[in-house]
Amino acid sequence: xxxxxxLSFRNITxxxxxxxxxxxxxxxxxxxxxxxxxxxxxxxxxxxAKCHRVVNEVLQTVDFVAPDERVMFRTCERExxxxxxxxxxADPDRALVVARLVEQDVAAIDVNMGCPKEYxxxxxxxxxxxxxxxxxxxxxKKLVTGVSVPVTCKIRILPSLEETVRLVxxxxxxxxxxxxxxxxxxxxxxxxxxxxxYIQAVARSVSIPVIANGGSLDLVKTNVDIEDFRNxxxxxxxxxxxxxxxxxxxxxxxxxLPLETVMEDYLKHAIRYNNHAFNTKYCLCQMLRExxxxxxxxxxxxxxxxxxxxxxxxxQEFYQQTQDQxxxxxxxxQTSSQPETLVMDGDVxxxxxxxxxxxxxxxxxxxxxxxxxxxKEKVEQPLYEMAQRSQDRSFxxxxxxxxxxxxxxxxxxxxxxxxxxxxxxxxRVLGIPEGRIGEEDSGxxxxxxxxxxxxxxxxxxxxxxxxxxxxxHVFETRQETDDQKTKSVGVENGERHKQTMTx
Length: 503
Fold this sequence. Notes:
By secondary structure, this protein is an alpha/beta fold. 37% of the residues lie in helices and 20% in strands.
């Protein structure tokens, strides 16, 4: 596999790059089942060049995040020496910028020169490059001399065998480590027969590894067919797309697994690495194929969240355990990285504080203390603003008191706890008692409330929640589609309540 620390493309079986399919869960699944190398889906250079690299300590991944916060590419240590980053590009300089951005986190860089779909060909990328050999050469030379990892490319065949061979020989001279050849013309589709003779001719004409592609369904249905396909093309290696998409256990030497098992294994990776539910659903539907209208298929199609997909496949317990583990990691990281010190975030005073209900008597909350203090001091009652984070639906509240704003830098799982945390920050900054167990009685909240007399448990707190005068909720939601992420903000202003707290 590795030659002098570099990925070798000789005698390998690879997961082909597939748009919307080749994300991290599918790549890890293919590695689990025996793939030697995995290619990510084609990622466009213009979009990738705008990304910044983020180490995700919760997921233990490296994320390349766009300005709109969409994760364009996610990878992890498990695949670092096996994953090939495929880009769509028609510009040598921009290609180098992207390659240098990702090179420390991937095993190789590949340029897409074969995809015939508009997604790739617009702007002169993908199969459009086949008509411009000079540009192909310029891009590949720029990358080969500019990055420390191997560079490869993936092409389709040209109208004549001679043209195809000449192009690959020219590509070889750029110094690439390998070339993948899909044995169809750019106008042809999977229903058209594969041109084995073209791949054979290319393999004989160059010394670099040639990776044969395009044999799914007709020539490669199971693992035992892979070696036959390799031999029939004369290629060094084989790359599988649709056969792997339908059932990734095609990479298993021991034979295929039941589809339901493959789907469950895939979904576990998707849950573990917080894959977008729409992408997960798309891949599961591709696996189901003709079974997509079965009861299981209909349940998968109806699912809108990862939790619902987990329910469809009977993985509710795994899903919840994973969510709990990820939340525990978030909490631990927030606690360790953010000591309880004041930090200014713009005009907001922040402190890393989490509301711990057990630290307060049953009928006492920091919000109650802050409200009573504001009444005693005859100042405007506290105004709370609520924000919701899209990736984990956590909440963060900012409270305004006497024109100054306060919030906890930590995110809470409920709106009420987020508001309580904001109140704690405000009280601590102002040096006001907050009602914790063992704290000296300040007289801000009456004895009956402390003892919970006259009302069932929790009533006073719920009443106080409603009494919180001006409450302003700001909800940030993000919906991701394949091509965009939209952001909407809604504001709800509550009316001021004129009733006062019973004393």
